[in-house]
Amino acid sequence: MATNGSTTEVDTLHESPVPREVEKGTQNLSGIEDPGSTVNEIPDGGSAAWLVVFGTWCTSFCSFGWINSVGIFQDYYERELLKNYSSSTIAWIPSLQIFFIMAMGPVVGRIHDIYGPRRLILGGTLLHVFGLMMASISTEYYQILLSQGVCSAIGASAIFQPAISTVPEWFNKKRGAAFGICSTGSSVGGVIFPIMITHLITQVGFPWTMRISAFLILFLLIIANLTVRQRIVSTKKESKKPNHLQPFREPKSLFLMGGFFLITFGIFVPIDYVVVEARASGMSNSILQYLVPILNAASFFGRSSSGLVADKVGRFNVFSAVCATTGILTLGLWIPANSNAALISFAAFFGFFSGAYVSLSPALVAEIAPPEEFGYRSGLLFMCASIGGLVTNPIAGAILDAENGSFTGLKVFAGVFCLFGTAVAFGARLYETGFKLVAKY
């Protein structure tokens, strides 16, 4: 029996009683007492593990599910609340949301690695709900920018990152499936929020729409606060400091971060502008209000299925395949789309294949990162993506303005970056397996 810091490896619990100091240093929270198992054995199931998945699903619903409705707000702000501002100026609001939910990743991830998820999720709950409540009383551009674009987004990052970083403690062989289930929360949120927001704005106005949304988010985050917890809790508040520059010295990590950086430039453009273009092409409101929900409903099936397939054929393989298909669809289907049927088809196919972008990203990090640095490294990956998230929509809006309302340049921009980023991320797989056509990785 050997101790290391505040965690303990127990080779066989039958050998001797567990010393008192070991009991104080580490608590096994799996809820499963198995005399033949080790404290650090990953359960890959059980009620406690699936409750963590459910709580993480709730945070996904309230964070990326909310972000997935940015197209509805972009359209509403352009038509009503902020109609005196240009499309590229308004686009800074969803861009800041995307930026902060990702850019806070390394900080939030490192805090999670030391202190666990509980405090972060509680603080994030308060910030997210407070930001939306402040947005409900906002009437000026800067007020919406700060409340919805900054405060709410920072809170969303503080709930999503710690929760998703806790899942690998509970799952190993079923990790891809667990991440896939968790990420479907954002798809369900992306279906419910746009429909709810569209109808509520018409019936009760923008202020009460934001308040009702905030109350729904608060309810789900209370569940997350009660269910997301570490499997092994260390009482020692200081852990071994990771080498924060090490990921930048590892080729696999560099390929993955570079790929995510580039893919983000393309993948959020359709999410933000598919509604704007559909309205410009003459789609009626009765159909238009369901376009984003269709995209996110398809994403639900894409996210859940990609996780299951990835566990069998390789996570990098599946991620690269679906992201490449996303770029091809953007160039091959969205550019020529000029009818309601074509736009609806694009939304459905794009939603299905783009779902793996979020659902598999934590699994890719877990594939190449030490377990004790998972929070920091997954946060670092999201931070790389945040740069694209910050500037993509303003760039797309500027392209739209420069081309006098033509969406072709914007679509080419999105498709090319999706394909280029996928090729770079696939470099991590090639570095590990070589140029093998069939290799599970």
TrEMBL record:
<feature type="transmembrane region" description="Helical">
    <location>
        <begin position="380"/>
        <end position="400"/>
    </location>
</feature>
<feature type="transmembrane region" description="Helical">
    <location>
        <begin position="208"/>
        <end position="228"/>
    </location>
</feature>
<feature type="domain" description="Major facilitator superfamily (MFS) profile">
    <location>
        <begin position="48"/>
        <end position="441"/>
    </location>
</feature>
<keyword id="KW-0325">Glycoprotein</keyword>
<feature type="compositionally biased region" description="Basic and acidic residues">
    <location>
        <begin position="11"/>
        <end position="24"/>
    </location>
</feature>
<feature type="compositionally biased region" description="Polar residues">
    <location>
        <begin position="1"/>
        <end position="10"/>
    </location>
</feature>
<feature type="transmembrane region" description="Helical">
    <location>
        <begin position="176"/>
        <end position="202"/>
    </location>
</feature>
<feature type="region of interest" description="Disordered">
    <location>
        <begin position="1"/>
        <end position="37"/>
    </location>
</feature>
<dbReference type="InterPro" id="IPR050327">
    <property type="entry name" value="Proton-linked_MCT"/>
</dbReference>
<feature type="transmembrane region" description="Helical">
    <location>
        <begin position="412"/>
        <end position="431"/>
    </location>
</feature>
<dbReference type="InterPro" id="IPR036259">
    <property type="entry name" value="MFS_trans_sf"/>
</dbReference>
<feature type="transmembrane region" description="Helical">
    <location>
        <begin position="89"/>
        <end position="108"/>
    </location>
</feature>
<keyword id="KW-1133">Transmembrane helix</keyword>
<protein>
    <submittedName>
        <fullName>Monocarboxylate transporter</fullName>
    </submittedName>
</protein>
<feature type="transmembrane region" description="Helical">
    <location>
        <begin position="144"/>
        <end position="164"/>
    </location>
</feature>
<dbReference type="InterPro" id="IPR020846">
    <property type="entry name" value="MFS_dom"/>
</dbReference>
<keyword id="KW-0812">Transmembrane</keyword>
<comment type="similarity">
    <text>Belongs to the major facilitator superfamily. Monocarboxylate porter (TC 2.A.1.13) family.</text>
</comment>
<dbReference type="Pfam" id="PF07690">
    <property type="entry name" value="MFS_1"/>
</dbReference>
<dbReference type="InterPro" id="IPR011701">
    <property type="entry name" value="MFS"/>
</dbReference>
<feature type="transmembrane region" description="Helical">
    <location>
        <begin position="316"/>
        <end position="335"/>
    </location>
</feature>
<feature type="transmembrane region" description="Helical">
    <location>
        <begin position="254"/>
        <end position="275"/>
    </location>
</feature>
<feature type="transmembrane region" description="Helical">
    <location>
        <begin position="48"/>
        <end position="69"/>
    </location>
</feature>
<feature type="transmembrane region" description="Helical">
    <location>
        <begin position="120"/>
        <end position="138"/>
    </location>
</feature>
<dbReference type="GO" id="GO:0016020">
    <property type="term" value="C:membrane"/>
</dbReference>
<keyword id="KW-0813">Transport</keyword>
<feature type="transmembrane region" description="Helical">
    <location>
        <begin position="341"/>
        <end position="360"/>
    </location>
</feature>
<keyword id="KW-0472">Membrane</keyword>
<dbReference type="GO" id="GO:0022857">
    <property type="term" value="F:transmembrane transporter activity"/>
</dbReference>
<feature type="transmembrane region" description="Helical">
    <location>
        <begin position="287"/>
        <end position="304"/>
    </location>
</feature>
